[in-house]
Write a structure and sequence with these properties.
The chain is α/β, with parallel strands linked by helices. The chain folds into 2 domains: 51 residues, Helicase, Ruva Protein, domain 3, CATH 1.10.8; 139 residues, Dna Topoisomerase Vi A Subunit, Chain: A, domain 2. It is 40% helix and 14% strand. It has 8 helices and 7 strands, in the order αααββαβαβαβαβαβ. Strand 5, helix 7 and strand 6 form a beta-alpha-beta unit. Helix 1 crosses helix 2. It is elongated and about 65 Å long.
Length: 212
Amino acid sequence: MIGAIPGLPLPLARLVELLASLPGIGPKTALRLSLNLMQKPAAEVGLLAEALASLHAKMGFCPQCGAFAEMREAQAHCAICEHPRRDAALICIVEQPVDVLMLERSGSYSGHYCVLHGRLSPIDGIGPGALNLAPLDRRIAEGRVRELILATSATVDGEATAHFLARRYRDAPVSISRISRGVPEGSELEYLDEHTLGRALSQRVAWERGEG
């Protein structure tokens, strides 16, 4: 344990422990980061602490699409939903907010999003009720949607989620498409480069109504 290293003061050990709890950061990396912060001016470290302290207060999720949004006011929409030149009738359905960031990096998409905040996973007890679909249902019922792009991951659970969505909206007055197979089997969108994602979007294929 890092905290058991002789001479490591408790405040520093606590920081190492917290940093090591983050994904992709092991104890050694956490120790290096902590020592680096100790060497920085107090004012600079204070800015980092302030950003961390205000993160949950200033950030949330868009009530319309579920993507990351700055909470400037109650029920504030994200910048994408508020953008006047985005195509609100074209909806790309993704699993997580980070998927929106990756697709935006591709620069090849100008529509809106629906973030599910998960995917169907019976083994983990995640069913349809856990998915963020109510806002999308409302938009479709209001006749505001022309096409749904299923951009769930190419994993077993991601494909199952895509099939569920196709069945759910098969009778709705919208066209349904799936991002192309340029996305490698078993891949998460988060780990793909922007060129692959852009190609997968632009080469999306229509979902045959019988597939769902």
